[in-house]
Fold each of these.
Amino acid sequence: YGEARPGYAVFVFVTEPFSEAQQVKLDYPEEAGNDKIDVLKLNAIRKFNTGIYDYSMMTSIFTPVDHNTYPYSLKSTTSSQEWCGHSFTQFNLERNKYRLQEFSYFEQEGDEDKNVDVAILEDALFNHLRLNGGELPLGDIDLIPSTTYTRLKHENIRPTAASITRTQSESKNTYIVEYQHYNRTLTIDVEQAFPHKILAWSEN
């Protein structure tokens, strides 16, 4: 998001039993009955230095393994810590809306609790690739931009128009996600073969 700075990122994928009602990991899944949903969780950790101080950001996304029955992620959280303070963002799927809670030390952002229209979360695209055979829907689509992006750019969170295109080689698919109303492009390389590893990505 500007001049390149040293940093690193780690993406951790794991499946786990999840409570549909409480939207938390189940301690006793064998007792949960129909409340249990298997999810693919991605913990995306980014740490970098701006040249003045350090940032540490983490996003957790919980996407049902049965994405045909549950096309949208059930929950997503993002925390950001840096020397000025910290902030927290959480999505919870409630029927056809996301409940969005934001907590920030910035005056104009403050604390918010509101609903936004449901759409695919950009942060969940990595999960969708892993669950859907290395494929994403192509063409025009509404996406909720990455919470890392909206946090660093102080953008309002809402679904916005984007387009997804794909190029293919012998072993990988390359997806390019371009937003119509933001100067933002996300490129993801993913293996065509199982387990559809994320090979590389860039955010411009």
Amino acid sequence: MTADFIWRMEAVLELYAEPYDPKRPVVCFDERPYQMVADVHAPLPAAPGRARREDYAYERRGVCNLYMVFEPLRRRRWVRVTARRTAEDFAWQMKWLVDEVYPEADVVRVVLDNLNCHTPAALYRVFPAAEARRLVRRLEFVYTPKHASWLNMAEIEFSVLSRQCLGQRLSDIGCVRRAVEAWACARDASGCGVDWRFGVWDAREKLR
């Protein structure tokens, strides 16, 4: 385990241990591709004494991208669906986060992995320099160590999303958006969160 791994890990864990500060919220950010599929034959609806029947055959309808934003201390999440996963898409997600989700915050602290487009430079490639600088000053990126994306709580939310929502056949981006938005709203309303118990001292003891 390298020194770089350790300091990045402890930076994330200390951030998770901080109390809630509305002026400096902490969010976890991650992304994942999703294969859209459609039924070849229409399913047979459920009937008394008989479950819904679905043919095994399906048709691939391309891949979309899911962005997960999870605020652990307020137990809120947003899932954004895009056609692609590019530096431009990432930049627009950061602008949405700053201007629409947290317009009153001084800085939004974002836990994310080391993907090559997850940098302030992505914003400068997409927006004019003055706008990019305005956004970058409102963002603080906290990177998980390489090969330790499990430290990002957005991965836990993605795991729940996969089990509870994405196992069904969703044939286009519109269907995916409706499904994940309904899932996020229901999970927010129920107050579900992540019971994170792994701290700096646990890491030093278990990973030494």
Amino acid sequence: FAFLLPSGGTLMPIAPPAGKNAAYATGVNAAGAVVGYAGLTPDNTGATVRAFYYENGTTVLLPTLSGTSRANAINDDGTVVGYSVDAANVVHAVKWTYVGGNWQIATLPGNANSAASAISSTGRIVGTGCPTSTPTNCSSMTRAYFWASDTATPTVLGTLGGNASQGHGVNDAGDIAGESWTKAGLQRAFFSAAGSGVLTDLGSLAGGSGSSTAYGLSGRLVVGVSVA
């Protein structure tokens, strides 16, 4: 079960949506709306995974492009972002919005083979994509993607010298945090100030030889995990 912990309250289980027996919460907004993904267990292939939305005791599946999907974040106006797989088995970064009493899904601009990880209260979105891709696969290493809005072509970030980067957190100003690989092959947390295009290595708890990843960003506060 996923759970919601209200301020000053106790853990509240979030029941899986109809047809699923497991749920995993990944995001919550100020109103207490929760998003995540649900599926059937056991499921060794992940084929049953679908994005869900929970509010006021009700859990519903969000629409998909065709196949699997996952909701990763929701902002305070209720816009949900994540990814979904289409009928050709291509992964797309998507947004979900509630319009006219129904949930609607739309792909974010940019190449396929992408996924959205976070959305700020100002509608800025960060995630990961493949700048050079074939219809069904990534023909180069992935890069952190930044969408200034859900209608903007994504900005492709670079790396810390290695082959790949991934975006995990974004704040209202458009600053980005995530992970990238260095020329030496180390996985390191990075911070990139809005519009700079520059990735700053945040280091690790183990010094220059350790690995780290940044998962969240609020203002200039960054959280993540590191080898100590």
